[in-house]
Design brief:
heterodimer, A: about 270 residues, mainly beta, 13-stranded mixed beta sheet, 4-stranded mixed beta sheet, about 10% helix, elongated, B: about 300 residues, two-stranded antiparallel sheet, 17 strands
Chain lengths: ~270, ~300
C-alpha cells in the first residue's frame, strides 16, 4: 500500500486547519470522499480537493508534501497511525494526540504537542514557543508520550507538563519547564533563563552550564543512574541513537526544587 | 521402555494449573542481584505451606536487563492471582527493596496486571517519583543507598505446576548424583524452575493422611524403609528415591524440562545405580496436565 499523500496544488497563504486529515478520521474513506472533506482556511471553508492533490491508499500512513507553516493543527487529536510532514508545519501540530507518530523534516510552529496524551513526535528541525505546554487556562499540559526535537525549542517549553518525555538536542528558550508538574525533559543544548521556575515535580536533565536560581534549588551528587538507563532503553526502543552515557558526562549533580513549590522536582546537571 | 538400561515406568506425572509471574532483579553486580534473588525466592518450595513456589530461572547479562545492569530472572507460582500479588509484594518489599543497589522489573508483558511498584511505592513516604516511559511506569523510591526502582506492575499468566519425575536408585549417592545432573540441565532451560532445595525433593508426598489435620503426608509407597509394611512401588534393589518437581510457564516448557531432566538423570544408566524413572500422580484427580513418560521420551 502507498501512503496517503496530500500535495498542495496551490499556494496556501492563509492558515488552514488540517485537523480532519488524520489517520483515525480517514480510515475507510475513498479518495473522492477525502477530497470533499471541509477544511477551514482563514475565515473560509474549503474542500480538501481545492487545496491538495490526494494520492495513495493507506490512510494509516499519511504524508503532507511540500508542507508550509500555514499548515496548522496537523495530527490534532490523532489516535493511531503515522503522519510524515515533508517541510514545515504551523501551530498546534500534534496537539491533543493520544497515539501514533508524527515526523516532520522541517520546523514546527508554536504550541506543538499541546496537551498531548500519547504517541511520538519527531521534529527534525526546530519548533516554536510553548512546546508541549498547555493552552492558556488549561490546568496541565502534555500528559504522556514523547517529543524529540533535533533543533531548538522556543520559550516556555513543557510549561505545566504533567507526564511524558521531551528531548531537545538544540537550545531551549527562556522559562523552560516552568510550573512543571511531572515528566522528564532532556535539554542537551543551551538553556535560557528561569529554568524550572515554579516546578512542583518532574525531572529536567541539562548541562552544568544551565543556570538555576540559587535560592530555589539545592544540589547534591546524583545517585539515580538507574533512571537514566531506563530512558536510554526507551530511546533505543523508539529508534533514537542518542547515547546518554557519552552525552551526559560526569560529574552529575542533582538539584531539587523549586523549593518555593514543594521542592519535589529535580534538575540533573551533567558535565560538559 | 529402557533408557541406558534404566527402566522407564509406563506412568504419568500429574500437574495442575497455576498462576505465574516473572520478575527481573538487577543490581550493580551479579553477586548482589543473586543475594536479592535468593532471598526473594526463599521459603517458596511448595504452595501447600509456603503459598508460593519460586526459583531462579536464569542469570541475565547487562544487555538483557531493562537498566543495563547484571540481573536475575525469577519465576513465581501461586494458586490464585490474589495470593500471587500478596506474595510478590511481600517478597519485593522485604527481600529485594532491602538488598543494596537492587531494582526490580516485570519479566512478562502480557496477561493480567499484578501490582508491584504500585504497592511498594508507599515506602517512599511521599518522596517517591513516578516515571512513565512509553507504556511502562516505574517508581523511583528514595532509599539509603540512592534510589530503588520498581516497575508499577508485572503480569501474571496461566502456567503449570507440579511436573515431576522420580529417580529410583540403589543408594542415595546414586540418586543424588543423577538428580543433580537433571537439575543442572533443567536450569539451562527457559520458562521453568525446580523450586525445591537444590531442585530436589526427598519427601515426596501423597494426598491426605491418617491425621485429619494433614492435607498431605509421606509418599509411603516410595519409602524404602516402609517396604513390607505398605504396598511398595519400589523395585527390590532400590534403597533411595529422589523427586524432581518442575513448574513452568507452559505445558511445553514443563514437558521439555521433564524430558531433558530424565535423559540427564539416565546418562550413566543402571551401571551407576539408577534403577528406574517413574512419576507421581494421583490418578488424574489433582490436575489436568498429564505428562506420560512414554510420550515424552524419544
Amino acid at each position: 500500500m502507498k501512503p496517503l499523500t496530500f500535495s498542495p496544488t496551490t499556494e496556501i497563504t492563509r492558515p488552514v486547519d488540517l485537523t480532519p486529515l488524520r489517520p483515525d478520521n480517514l480510515v475507510g474513506m475513498k479518495i473522492s470522499e477525502i477530497e470533499r472533506i471541509k477544511l477551514r482556511e482563514g475565515s473560509d471553508v474549503v474542500f480538501v480537493g481545492d487545496l491538495f492533490a490526494v494520492s495513495g491508499d493507506d490512510p494509516e500512513d499519511i504524508v503532507f508534501d511540500a508542507a508550509h507553516s500555514t499548515f496548522e493543527r496537523i495530527g490534532n487529536g490523532m489516535r493511531f497511525g503515522s503522519i510524515q510532514i515533508v517541510g514545515n508545519a504551523g501551530a498546534l501540530m500534534g496537539c491533543h494526540m493520544s497515539g501514533g507518530a508524527i515526523t516532520i523534516t522541517g520546523d514546527a510552529g508554536d504550541f506543538c504537542a499541546n496537551s498531548m496524551r500519547g504517541g511520538l513526535i519527531r521534529i527534525r528541525g526546530s519548533c516554536g514557543d510553548f512546546l508541549a505546554s498547555g493552552l492558556p487556562g488549561s490546568k496541565f499540559a502534555m500528559n504522556n508520550g514523547c517529543v524529540i526535537v533535533n533543533g531548538n525549542a522556543g520559550i516556555r517549553l513543557a510549561d505545566r507538563m504533567r507526564r511524558g518525555l521531551i528531548v531537545v538536542h538544540g537550545n531551549a528558550g527562556e522559562g523552560a519547564c516552568s510550573s512543571m508538574i511531572a515528566g522528564t525533559v532532556m535539554l542537551l543544548g543551551g538553556v535560557g533563563a528561569n529554568l524550572g521556575v515554579h516546578m512542583k515535580r518532574g525531572s529536567i536533565i541539562c548541562s552544568e552550564s544551565s543556570e538555576l536560581p540559587n535560592d530555589r534549588f539545592v544540589g547534591q551528587p546524583f545517585a539515580g543512574d538507574g533512571y537514566l538507563a531506563l530512558i536510554q532503553r526507551y530511546l533505543n526502543e523508539i529508534g533514537e541513537s542518542l547515547n546518554l552515557n557519552e552525552k551526559l558526562r560526569m560529574p552529575r549533580y542533582r538539584f531539587i526544587g523549586d523549593l518555593s513549590h514543594g521542592g519535589m522536582g529535580e534538575v540533573i546537571r551533567y558535565g560538559v | 521402555m529402557e533408557l541406558n538400561g534404566v527402566t522407564i515406568k509406563d506412568t504419568f506425572a500429574e500437574a495442575f494449573p497455576i498462576k505465574a509471574a516473572r520478575l527481573i532483579v538487577t543490581a550493580r553486580d551479579e553477586k548482589w542481584a543473586k543475594h536479592a534473588a535468593i532471598a526473594a525466592t526463599g521459603f517458596a518450595t511448595s504452595v501447600i505451606a509456603c503459598k508460593i513456589e519460586a526459583g531462579i530461572e536464569r542469570s541475565l547479562t547487562a544487555s538483557e536487563t531493562p537498566d543495563g545492569r547484571p540481573g536475575v530472572s525469577l519465576l513465581f507460582f501461586a494458586v490464585s492471582g490474589t495470593e500471587l500479588e500478596y506474595q510478590l509484594q511481600n517478597r519485593i518489599g522485604q527481600c529485594i527493596l532491602t538488598s543494596p543497589t537492587s531494582a526490580v522489573f516485570s519479566g512478562i508483558d502480557e496477561g493480567e496486571p499484578v501490582a508491584i511498584g504500585k504497592a511498594i511505592r508507599y515506602f517512599g513516604d511521599g518522596y517517591q517519583i513516578s516515571k512513565k516511559l512509553g507504556e511502562r511506569r516505574y517508581w523511583r523510591i528514595p532509599v539509603m543507598d540512592g534510589e530503588f526502582i520498581c516497575e508499577h506492575v508485572t503480569h501474571r499468566v496461566d502456567a503449570v505446576a507440579g511436573g515431576n519425575f522420580l529417580i529410583v536408585a540403589t543408594n542415595v549417592e546414586a540418586a543424588l548424583f543423577a538428580a543433580e545432573r537433571a537439575v543442572e540441565v533443567i536450569a539451562q532451560l527457559p520458562d521453568a524452575i525446580t523450586p525445591f532445595p537444590g531442585g530436589v525433593v526427598r519427601s515426596g508426598s501423597k494426598v491426605g493422611s491418617k491425621y485429619k489435620f494433614m492435607t498431605a503426608s509421606t509418599n509411603d509407597a516410595y519409602c524404602p524403609t516402609l517396604r513390607g509394611l505398605v504396598e511398595s512401588e519400589l523395585p527390590d534393589e532400590s534403597q533411595a528415591v529422589l523427586e524432581i518437581v518442575i513448574d513452568g510457564l507452559t505445558h511445553e516448557a514443563v514437558a521439555k524440562a521433564m524430558r531433558e531432566g530424565i535423559c540427564a538423570a539416565c546418562t550413566d544408566g543402571r551401571e551407576k545405580g539408577v534403577v528406574e524413572i517413574t512419576a507421581s500422580n494421583f490418578g488424574g484427580t489433582l490436575g489436568k496436565h498429564h505428562f506420560h513418560l512414554y510420550q515424552l521420551l524419544p
